[in-house]
Amino acid sequence: MATLTRVSPPGDLVEPLLQSVCDHLRRFADLAASPQIAPPDLAYIRELTRVAVEAVDGPAGKLGRCLLTQTWKLVADEFLDDFRLPVPPVRSITSVRYVGQDGTWQTLSADQYRLFGAGSWSAELAPTETWPSIGGGARGAVEVTFVAGYGDDIEDVPAPILHGIRLLVAHWYLERQPVTFSTPHEIPITASALFAGYRIYR
After folding, report:
1. Neighbours of 1 (CB within 10 A)
2. At a CB cut-off of 8 Å and minimum separation 6, what does 8 contact?
3. Architecture of domain 2-66+153-196
4. For the residues 18-39, what does the mean pLDDT come to?
5. Whole-structure pTM value
6. What percent of the chain has pLDDT over 70?
7. Closest Cα partner for 193 from 171, 164, 165?
8. Cα–Cα nearest to 58, from 48, 70, 47
């Protein structure tokens, strides 16, 4: 049994996206101007953008992957032969801890494990030689803290994902109900096509 918990959230993706979302909606805006030029319903557009980002990002999102840099902790009962980290793209390992034979928490040094597939669809943690022995019967005896995401800035996120988010916002902005007779899709087909190349299926 394994559990996954976010340790630190990603940076803000909503505000960097907001100008391009307004442009896509053809709502005149110059959000960098002083004073700011913005449509009267900017707060609603911002909220839709926030919801769209959250619907896509993280292991519970539609893609099953992280967008901006964030830290996660995987807790397992034991070290596994096939120790896969479930939220790509994994960038680095922060720490690996375990309950030793004496019942106390121990931290593995970085030369005792290796990360395979960093930045790929599937990252795996493996021991340099063998995993240490776990204290008898301990639940949640292994903790792996790792960093995932494409990077710290919006430019690091693949363009198809960003445009898929814009399409989601546009769909929700124009269609205030989940299903209509004219467009009976909860997610626009074009957005689904853009996401398809990045979606993780479990």
Report:
1. 8
2. 70, 71
3. Orthogonal Bundle (1.10)
4. 95
5. 0.87
6. 91
7. 164
8. 70
